[in-house]
Design goal:
This protein is mainly α. It has helices at 45-57, 62-75, 80-90, 96-107, 124-130, 147-157, 159-163, 169-176, 180-198, 205-217; strands at residues 3-5, 8-10. A two-stranded antiparallel ribbon has the order 1-2. Strand 1 and strand 2 (8-10) form a beta hairpin. Helix 6 packs across helix 8. The N and C termini lie far apart (51 Å).
Length: 218
């Protein structure tokens, strides 16, 4: 089926429109793909930069796919089938043998340990080490970036299931020992970021700080 991009028409393999596509969802994620993945500014330099590259070139390197697009999708609890369909729409190499296993297994951990040994998720530290996005982001990678508290919130939400995954047990133990006040702020960060991006709005350090201050007093 041809797909229109700014470079013209491109072709791809058989799409999941034929049968709706596989729908594994081990972690029960239900969030739809937010407007930021379609080009609306998110306020996160890494996400906005990679999304712009995708819509400009029709592809990115494996690391931006996995540790920016898929990582943030997991931290937001995006539904795996919806995320997979987005990759079908966005990438020139969107063939079934590429997209389906890459996203449903490695990119969302939707099939559990069937194909990968742990979820590929991280906070801001990995993105800072592996890219130059953080240097031009409004959020400071160590002080205000929401991705690290969202990482902790992800572990806390999926504590029981992830504890059964051998390579995730150490991280789950760490979140279980995390200070309760920090865990509340982690959850508040996740809820604020998810709601803001769902609405198609742009994140800012000031907006996040205000949301956390309100959460602290509730």
């Amino acid at each position: 089926m041809p797909l229109q991009t700014r470079h013209g028409l491109r072709t791809r393999g058989t799409s999941p429109a034929v049968d709706g596509g596989a729908r594994p969802n081990l972690l029960g994620a239900r969030e739809g793909v937010p407007p930021a993945y379609w080009g609306a500014p998110s306020g996160l330099r890494c996400l906005d930069g990679v999304v712009a590259d995708v819509w400009d070139e029709g592809m990115t390197h494996h690391i931006p796919r996995l540790m920016v697009l898929a990582n943030i999708a997991q931290l937001l609890d995006l539904e795996p089938r919806a995320l997979t369909n987005w990759f079908w729409s966005a990438y020139v190499d969107a063939f079934d043998w590429v997209v389906e296993p890459n996203v449903l297994a490695m990119g969302s951990f939707a099939v559990g340990e069937l194909m990968t040994t742990k979820p590929y998720v991280s906070g801001s530290g990995y993105i800072q080490r592996m890219s130059d996005y953080c240097s031009s982001c409004a959020f400071h990678p160590k002080k205000s970036c929401p991705l690290t508290p969202m990482y902790w919130a992800y572990l806390a939400r999926h504590d029981a299931l992830l504890f059964e995954v051998g390579r995730s047990q150490r991280q789950v133990w760490s979140v279980r020992k995390r200070d309760p006040a920090k865990r509340r702020r982690d959850a508040a960060t996740f809820e604020f970021v998810q709601a803001t991006l769902r609405a198609g709005e742009r994140l800012s350090p000031e907006g996040l700080a205000a949301a956390l201050a309100k959460a602290d007093t509730d």
